Amino acid sequence: MSGFQRNSSGQAVIGAAVLQHIVETGTLTTPAYIYDLDGIEEGAKALVDALGHDNIVAYAVKANTAGSVVKRVARAGAGADVVSAGELQVALACGVPPARIVMSGVGKDTAEFDQAISAGIRGIQVESVEEIARLAARASALSHDANVSIRINPSVEIDSHSHIATGHDEAKFGVHLDDLDRAWAAIDAAPHLKAVGVSAHVGSMLTSPEPYVASAKVVCDSAKARRAMGKMLEFVDLGGGFGIDYGGQPAQPPTVFAKAALQLLAEQELADHQLVVEPGRSIVGPYGVLLTRVLQSKTSSPRRWAMIDAGMNDLLRPALYQAHHRVESLSAPPSGTPWRVVGPVCESSDDFGLHAISETLPDYVVIRDAGAYGFTLASEYNGRALAAEAFISKGQIESISASPGVDAWIKSRLDA
Ligand SMILES: Cc1ncc(COP(=O)(O)O)c(C=O)c1O
After folding, report:
1. What is the mean pLDDT of residues 349-368?
2. Catalytic residue ranges
3. Which end of the chain has less Cβ packing within 10 Å, N or C?
4. Boundaries of every domain in the chain
5. Collapsed DSSP state (helix, strand, coil) of residue 224
6. 123 and 146 in contact (C-beta within 8 Å)?
């Protein structure tokens, strides 16, 4: 498992490929996401092994939807957590077996229900009593049974940015515990719905398993209550949210979360249930970088800025929830007085923060840990084309997904 590293000469390396060499080949336009496919597969495999192959590591596809990435994660034996028909089709086309796919989402449309039902996925995670009625109607219309799991709102606060906390009382996600009996009754009463699981996802960027376990206990209580009624479920799904180290706060590795989940299941005497977890960020985040060209500096004493050709439209996380990503030179580790690194977008929030890159500005810099929620959150705001993506394997570029380019953007707007 490598991701971003520095070699003995101090050069930036991703997946055994020296980034400076990639730049010199001239094969990539910038900004460009570059992913270490071998690192992703190895990391996913380590997690699958830690959880046990009878259980499911349902990779949260929203973190990175690139086919090359999802295929590697599937090859490692992982399943998928999807939130739309688009993600479902990508997961299926990349070889994820339907029996290892769960679908979450607070507002699924009819086509999404129909595709999930027809594919026979492991669990359609319903998030409200109202949704159960809509799902039941579609299953009846298709005369097809559907595996249903209830995503509960466990009422657990986590120490993360409010935009990535999803399991507290005010969150729109999940069935509130007061409504749970009603929700189970609605599933049990529907001829084509089969209650198979219960899940929760408290949010993202957990740096230790404690809040995860707090939410997991609420999930386990629900599973035990069902079993006590003689209506045993097949799986408990404890969600994702395993954090990564963006250079600020260290995070426990994903396997530590997996072991904590397994231990909890045993303690709760629920080992007769399959265990599902839904990690996204930890599978791909550390194995991607965003390569960007330095356009120019701007000095107005006492400040000095570095203007780069990647903006918040390419990597939204800093603007969306004040996320921190390390920005570094390709040729040497951080040094010198910090530069304020900003993108070209006309928003003050298009700001990647202060970084000691090097005393004089290099031609290119790399934004680290951009493999998750990078390209998938990108937009064409300000008339900017989506970034290119390159996929590294065995130290070489295996494939490139080229940027559609500004001309494609111009055409699409003129066609509108
Ligand atoms: C339902 C659900 N599961 C899993 C995840 C993955 O979270 P993470 O990428 O933090 O592991 C998310 C992220 O938003 C989610 O909404």
Report:
1. 97
2. 346
3. C
4. 4-35+285-415, 104-279
5. helix
6. no
What is the H or E stretch that residue 194 is in?
A: strand 193-199
Residue 107 — pLDDT band, cuts 50, 70, 90?
Answer: very high
Whether 317 has a pLDDT exceeding 70, the answer reads: yes
Atom of ligand 1 nearest to the CA of 242: 11
- Residue 227: its pLDDT value, please? 96
Q: b/e for 289-312, b at 16 or more Cβ within 10 A?
A: bbbbbbeeeeeeeeeebbbbbbbb
The identity of residue 28, as a single letter, is L
CA distance 366 to 22: 12
* Distance separating alpha carbons of residues 339 and 5, to the nearest angstrom: 22
Residue minimizing CA distance to atom 5 of ligand 1: 240
Write down the pLDDT at residue 169.
Answer: 67
CATH 3.90.1030.10 fits 104-279, yes or no: no
Give which of 90, 88, 110, 112 is closest to 101, Cα–Cα: 88
Q: Is the C-beta atom of 279 inside 6 A of ligand 1?
A: yes
Residues 6+ apart with CB under 8 A from 287: 2, 3, 14, 15, 35, 36, 37, 39, 40, 43, 371
Domain 4-35+285-415 has CATH 2.40.37.10: yes
